[in-house]
Amino acid sequence: MMQTCCIHHPSLSSPLRCDASAIGVKPPRVCKVGFTGKKHPLGISRGRRLDVNLNANDAHPSMSMFEEETSPENTAPVSPEAELPFGKWSPSKYIWRGLSVPIIAGQVILRILKGKIHWRNTLQQLERTGPKSLGVCLLTSTFVGMAFTIQFVREFTRLGLNRSIGGVLALAFSRELSPVITSIVVAGRMGSAFAAELGTMQVSEQTDTLRVLGADPIDYLITPRVIASCLALPFLTLMCFTVGMASSALLSDAVYGISINIIMDSAHRALRPWDIVSAMIKSQVFGAIISVISCSWGVTTTGGAKGVGESTTSAVVMSLVGIFIADFVLSSFFFQGAGDSLKNCV
Asked: What's phi and psi for 45, nearest 5 deg?
């Protein structure tokens, strides 16, 4: 028959239970209980040992408390387990986000080549990226054009090169200013929207719901945004170039007395078809960079609302960096050697 005894002691947080069997038949049993104390600053650990003796006649317990000290020399060293060189290393968020950019870009290209395009979402995104972004793009281009006109007219009139002002403005707008300024505006307006929307859907598990329903997020969410950006940016760039040149001509005529006809004739002599084509190509590349980076940052968002905010900010910054790098690479590839576009404007 099993017997149980309950022991209370001031140093114990809970009663101690011991079992005894065959009382009177077997000799008294001793229960030893160890308690770990605080570790000494010198490495000596103190512990308490409680010995409980059960009387064989009446099973009445008697206990005694002992304190023990254990030095580091008496403890057996624990051999650390062998670890792999990179077992605890985890890649940075920017590394695996950067790796997700070419993967998503490749998937989008395959979807476009196979014709897996959600046209309804594409038209909706095209409306957001194009007509709804036109106003802020034109306003920005207008004031940038007037600011550059002030600088060019002040310097060129002193040199007697009034007929070269329009050509210089046209080349600057067509080759660099219009595609870059338009892309910056679209990156701030639409790139942040793409990252915030997809990031919110990711942290709220809406993208997982799309997969459960049988819809691929690449087809339904990312591909329409990439196509819309690549189609809308060239038209926005062309409109910004037109408005920028018009504002420059009006300011030159109204403030500095240089006729609009002189500005337009100089621009016509300096511009070539390749200048406009290069601007369209640049804007398409910039649109792809903005949409792919923003969507990649959005679908890799973690951490709730704070993560969405960080992804949005980081997506815009990385898009701008990508635009500037791509602009340098494309300009060095398109325009090599000495140019002769202004020789007809002097």
From this structure: -100, 135
